[in-house]
Input
Amino acid sequence: MIGAAALRAFRTPNFALLWSAQMISGFGDKITVFALAFVTWELTRSALSTALAVAISTIPYALFGFFGGAIADALGHRRAMIVCDLLRMLLIGAIPAVLLLGLPLAVPYALVFVAALCTAVFNPARLAIVPDLVPADRLGASNAVVYASDRTVEIIGTLVAGVLVATLAAQAFYVDAFTFGLSALLLLRIVMDERPPRRLSLGGVMADTLDGLRIIRDHAVLRANTIFSLLAQLSLPIVNGLTPVLIFREYALGPEQYGAVEASIAAGAVVTGLAFPSVLGRAPKGPVIVAGFAMLGLVLIGIAASPGIAVTIPLFALVGVANVVFFVPNVTLSQEVTPPALRARVFASRTALLHLSWLPIVLVSGLLADRFTVQALLAVAGAATLAVAAVGSLFPSVRGAR
Output
């Protein structure tokens, strides 16, 4: 059942418009990945090229993430989102024509790459604008609704994208482009006071990016929360990267069971985000964040000890629950303690640091999985997360964040 606080979040017209826009553009993101991978496979029959097609939409966010927030702050958050949606509409909408002309695959890859750069600006702007659209007492609930909606898009968007690409092939890019155009129209209807845009320059973007990192460094609570969260989330790339190996190799099962596991994570997040937003919004943020990471550690240890898929699937649903418990107060805390003009660059810096910290973990865990069981690696990851949560609870700057 959807909580009353979740329903109240939609009574704010500006937030309802933002929510609608991000839901629609989220579907577009899924279509891009599926369609590019499908077209690449049809043209090349190369596993390497197809894997590159999937990665091309995510690599820019890790590389460009530090600067995306600075650009969003300079343009203004609503304005940046509209510009990004319109650019993505044009870039993605051009792909079918490029393919029809028989141009090299490097051209649609480049178009998707630039569209992903726009996403690196759009996402921190989306997080930064929420406090400007909702009353302060609804901020936590609104963040919970946004997070739950993102996970819903993961479930439904994947299914819809698969059907569209199977039916329309390369023409599915037009549907994708349409979603970005519709999102821009919804964002245009948001009524808010927005600062005039500042002139963009390479030096200015670099300086603004450094400002975001300085805010994190100089604010005691934000610095402690960032370090604590980075360390506690090092288990997530292990889970994300090795779950397929757990299902296919350790359990000797197929893609249906893997899909069920992925869906259970999203379902746990959706139910928690929609049913308990008022609890997540009112409770002291520091203890809730620590509890969320402790829960994640315990659940991973449970998955490592699971006797089979029937127990593993509900445990993965608890991974989704834990994600909401630590993610929503994390975002809300950052929104509350960061000056409005700096929010996007702070979110971008935190996200980029997270992605960069994950890259070596993905590589090392993949190498270790060839020598050890996935269960052993998950047990170590869970124990490490639980230990980080226990140590973090001893620091007032982590435990006492409100």
User: Anything to note?
Assistant: The chain has two domains: 1-200, 208-402.
